[in-house]
Input
Amino acid sequence: MSDAPTLTILGLRAGRPDATSACSGYLVEYRDTRILVDCGPGIATELLGRGLEHRLDAVVLTHLHQDHMFDVVPLAFTRLLTPEPPGRIPLCVPEDSVDTLAALDEWVAVPTDPAVGRPLATAFDIRPMVRDGASPIELAPGVTLTAYAARHAVPSASLRLRLGDRTLAFSSDTGWCDGVLAAASGADVFVCEATYLSADPAMLAEHGHLTAELTGTLASTAGVGRLVVSHLLGYDDDASFAAAAKAADPVPVTAARPGLVVPVEPAAR
Output
């Protein structure tokens, strides 16, 4: 792997996968480290297709809505049901979602098979992310993860990854809030949700999401180097990308698509 960090879009769909894309999932690579951010439906298959299911160093789940985390179960089974299972790797989740993940682990367990009697706890070292913007987690040498409180229907973490001298941020699912602004502030690359092309304020507040225009405005306000627009429902992708780009100007905008590799380069200010 190169010393220059990269972001690969594995999936970008909100709510459910479709014929063009899996749900949310992003591969971050830096030196010898591979980190998976979110693992929605379809992402385990994407990893298998790339031969990466046993080559991850950490998994980060921004929150426990199904379109961001359901494939962590088949990923765990894939890592365990093999002649030579790889070692446990960190699985980071919001601090107030650890019990929910433990309940899921009990529900999907196969008690008659010791290999998968507690698949998530056996495949992963589950680590709580304190979403205060002041409790960094070192995932590897030169790789630090900091979580911030996003605004969503369930506990959700906006993320800031320090990759050497580069910074990559993720909105998670969120409405406009101080947490996502802090996570994105001055980031070289910012991956941000744009769930709706348009929505009334009450709907945005209830669900904790952004319109494409708000996504662009957020990126501009945070002073990011590049905005990657993602987490789309699939009804109006082109219009959403255009609306985000217009609002983000002069911040350059990249439209997420499966398989796209985005260099995490120093921002041109």
